[in-house]
Task: inverse folding
């Protein structure tokens, strides 16, 4: 097997933050090399160096036998180095087809005609032929991720660099991404694939490299890498979810120590009754009712497009419902302004970890404490979130735009906690986070929960949702199709509920 890329002893520092410390590895022609590693390990920085966006302080990059240190970004693209971005970057006002075409025109200097002819083939390859004329801005997460890969493929890469395509997708959607990557490999593309979704590494890569603190930890067969004590120590923690991928139903899920009976009615903190929400002509939420008990952790499980974010946004006053009521601590908050709702003690971490990029980490956190009640407690809260996420303390004076994907997610959660709320609504809390950090965050949430904070969690990962919550709701196409105490629901009940209904819808 011949070598396509060799990275030798790569180092880079930002100020006194030495991010890469002599990273070395090679990728063979037509191989899929997976890369895992803690948040902030330097994975995205590595891709930025390979594509020429960043210049390393030392080390060599040998591509097709040539040192490309001095090769410009655009020349590297013409040499066949293509990439996707951790946050999809399609042109939202253009159609799916036009976006793919641009990949060919800009990435490979094709004429519009040539690029257009290639675009339809790529749309078939990424399973989006039926979405050809939709505007990219109207796509759901899976399609945005597929399109991102499609645009990169349109530049006919010899080496494709993928930065987190599977985060936030359901298990079956992850499989469709794996299929697309495998398809690209079959066509002869060599791929470097960064992910925190371990299923992709096990099912989609030939070798997996674990990077931590800017150095190689181990590289080899994906299963062996996942099983290695070094990788458990720096990345996986005790997380074993990856071990039973595809193993089917398990009924032994129980949240430790919380199999108590539901508290009586007067403990209700938030009550949603008969909620209907429309997006234009489309009804996104149908007659949803939920009762959230004070001091509980409640999870809402459902595929992308199930209406979870719409539901949460409606609770927060971002959307106005067409019918139904939302009552918080006995007050009707239906249709109230978001600021008034926040003032009552509801905080939300928005999906996609939105942070203020031009503000420092501390400034971002203080934005969370702008309401009078939170302002009073801000010193104490700041200490609490810094203890929860030590990396935010380390980076407290840095601009949020320099944070890694996972660090931004941490900042977004921390900002919600800064509001000193009564309930925190977390939309996709584990997206983009290393398994060890996810465990850590859930442990911290449990601590906060024990101190009385109520949580509403939206998660894709069924097993994790059930394990960490008291009560669960399963949503399909805007409706609640199953609910119950998490300790009494099994993963198979939940998957049957949402796949069963999807099948006949
Ligand atoms: N332009 C920059 N200026 C300063 N620091 C930076 C810059 N880009 C990245 N960093 C820092 O470099 C480290 C590595 O970041 P990187 O984005 O590569 O992490 P990552 O491994 O991709 O993590 P994640 O899995 O969370 O996406 C982080 O601590 C980040 O804050
Ligand atoms: Mg990254």
Result:
């Amino acid at each position: 097997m011949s070598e396509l890329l060799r990275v030798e002893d790569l180092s880079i520092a930002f100020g006194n933050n030495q991010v890469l410390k002599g990273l070395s590895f090679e990728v063979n022609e037509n191989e899929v090399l997976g890369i895992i590693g803690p948040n902030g390990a330097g994975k995205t920085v590595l891709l930025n160096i390979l594509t020429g966006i960043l210049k390393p302080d030392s080390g060599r990059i040998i591509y097709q036998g040539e040192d490309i240190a001095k090769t410009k970004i655009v020349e590297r693209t013409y040499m066949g180095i293509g990439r996707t971005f951790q946050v999809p970057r399609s042109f939202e006002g253009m159609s799916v087809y036009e976006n793919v075409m641009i990949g060919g025109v800009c990435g490979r200097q094709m004429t519009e005609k040539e690029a257009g002819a290639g675009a339809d083939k790529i749309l078939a390859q990424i399973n989006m032929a039926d979405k050809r004329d939709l505007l990219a801005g109207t796509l759901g997460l899976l399609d945005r991720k597929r399109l991102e890969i499609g645009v990169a493929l349109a530049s006919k890469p010899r080496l494709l660099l993928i930065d987190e395509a599977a985060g936030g997708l359901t298990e079956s959607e992850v499989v469709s991404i794996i299929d697309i990557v495998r398809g690209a490999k079959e066509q002869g593309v060599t791929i470097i694939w960064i992910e925190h979704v371990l299923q992709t590494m096990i099912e989609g890569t030939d070798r997996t490299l674990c990077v931590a603190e800017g150095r190689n930890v181990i590289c080899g067969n994906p299963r062996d890498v996942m099983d290695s004590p070094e990788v458990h120590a720096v990345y996986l923690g005790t997380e074993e979810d990856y071990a039973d991928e595809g193993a089917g139903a398990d009924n032994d899920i129980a949240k430790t120590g919380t199999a108590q009976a539901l508290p009586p009615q007067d403990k209700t903190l938030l009550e949603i009754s008969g909620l209907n929400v429309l997006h234009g002509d489309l009804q996104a939420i149908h007659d949803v009712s939920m009762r959230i008990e004070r001091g509980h952790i409640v999870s809402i499980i459902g595929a992308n497009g199930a209406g979870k974010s719409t539901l949460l946004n409606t609770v927060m006053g971002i959307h106005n419902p067409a019918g139904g009521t939302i009552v918080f601590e006995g007050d009707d908050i239906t249709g109230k302004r978001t600021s008034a709702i926040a003032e009552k003690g509801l905080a939300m971490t928005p999906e996609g970890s939105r942070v203020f990029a031009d503000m420092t980490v501390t400034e971002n956190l203080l934005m969370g404490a702008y309401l009078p009640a939170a302002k009073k407690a801000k010193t104490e809260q700041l200490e609490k979130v810094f203890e929860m996420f030590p990396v935010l303390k380390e980076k407290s004076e840095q601009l949020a735009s320099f944070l890694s994907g996972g660090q931004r997610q941490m900042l977004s959660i921390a900002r919600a906690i800064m509001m000193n709320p009564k309930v925190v609504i977390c939309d996709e809390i584990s997206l983009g986070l290393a398994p060890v950090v996810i465990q850590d965050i859930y442990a911290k949430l449990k601590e906060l929960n024990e101190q009385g904070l109520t949580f509403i969690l939206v998660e894709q990962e069924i097993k994790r949702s059930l394990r960490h919550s008291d009560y669960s709701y399963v949503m399909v196409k805007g409706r609640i199709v199953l609910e119950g105490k998490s300790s009494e629901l099994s993963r198979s009940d939940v998957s049957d509920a949402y796949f069963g209904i999807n099948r006949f819808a």
